[in-house]
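Much of what follows relies on a compact textual record of a protein's fold. With that in mind, consider the following protein and its fold in token form.
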Amino acid sequence: MVGNPNNAAGLRIEFMLQPDNRVAEEFLGGAVFEGYPGLLHGGVTAALLDGAMTNCLFAHGIEAFTAELTVRYREPVDVRGTIAVWSSLTESRSELHLLRAELQQEGRVKAITLGKFVKKT
């Protein structure tokens, strides 16, 4: 789940581990998540992608903190539509974990993220 499950204002997404070892889930936006009228705020996009990567690590028994996040915003996201988010672990080296995440809507890639995470000590 993204963030603290006890936070009533949180995004409240439960990512599910897929047979290909990715995690994935869908998110229903809403006006509260708008940046420009009708569009998902870029910070919410980044939070969804970061949350997917964190939950991917959890699904693999890894606790780590975000060290670097590179988001490529490809297209605006309609805040009223269903948003699909997935993440996969691409590489692990001792204390460092590299992940990729993608946000899609209506079959189109809207944002891609590469992240570096460091093991929680």
